[in-house]
């Protein structure tokens, strides 16, 4: 289950891309982010990261630009964009970002 406060904004900005998932918290990675696994009908589909408060939208936009340059590699996660083209959602405190699981 996702935290309820920013979830409404995240769902709104990403439209139905992440609302169809069953969310389960999982251990965070090297980034210090909180991570949830989004399971669809056929299993894990998305990961949702809530980045630490010191990670800015500008910093992640730069990282995502580099990731998209390497998107042709099979092990590089796809950057999921909002309806307005942003690669992260800022809730006023931290950045949120879904990616392929």
Decide which structural class fits the backbone: alpha+beta
Strand numbers in spatial order across the main sheet: 1-2-3-5-4
The mean pLDDT is 79
Q: Radius of gyration in whole Å, from Cα?
A: 13 Å
Shape: globular
* Poorly predicted tracts of residues: none
In percent, how much strand structure appears in the residues?
Answer: 25-35%
Q: Can you count the beta strands?
A: 5
Main sheet properties: 5 strands, antiparallel
Helicity level, as a percent range?
Answer: 10-25%
Question: SSE order, as H and E?
Answer: HEEEHEE
Report the total helices. Answer: 2
* Terminal Cα span: 17 Å
Question: What do you see in this structure?
Answer:
With 101 residues, the chain is of the alpha+beta class. It is 24% helix and 28% strand. The protein has helices at 4-14, 57-69, and strands spanning 22-26, 34-40, 43-50, 89-90, 95-100. A hairpin with a 2-residue loop joins strand 2 and strand 3. It is globular, with a radius of gyration of 13 Å. The protein starts with a helix and ends with a strand.
Keywords:
2 helices; globular; five-stranded antiparallel beta sheet; about 100 residues; alpha+beta
Q: Helices, strands, pairings?
A:
Layout: H1 4-14, E1 22-26, E2 34-40, E3 43-50, H2 57-69, E4 89-90, E5 95-100
Antiparallel strand pairs: 1-2, 2-3, 3-5, 4-5
Quick structural overview:
Helix content is 24%, strand content 28%.
């Amino acid at each position: 289950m996702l935290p309820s406060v920013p979830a409404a904004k995240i769902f709104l900005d990403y439209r139905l891309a992440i609302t169809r998932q069953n969310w389960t918290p999982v251990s965070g990675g090297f980034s210090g982010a909180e991570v949830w696994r989004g399971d669809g009908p056929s299993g894990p589909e998305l990961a949702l990261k809530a980045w630490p408060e010191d990670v800015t939208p500008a910093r992640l936009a730069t990282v995502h630009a580099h990731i998209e340059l390497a998107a042709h590699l099979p092990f590089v996660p796809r950057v999921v964009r909002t309806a307005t083209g942003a690669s992260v959602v800022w809730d006023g405190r931290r950045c949120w970002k879904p990616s392929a699981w």
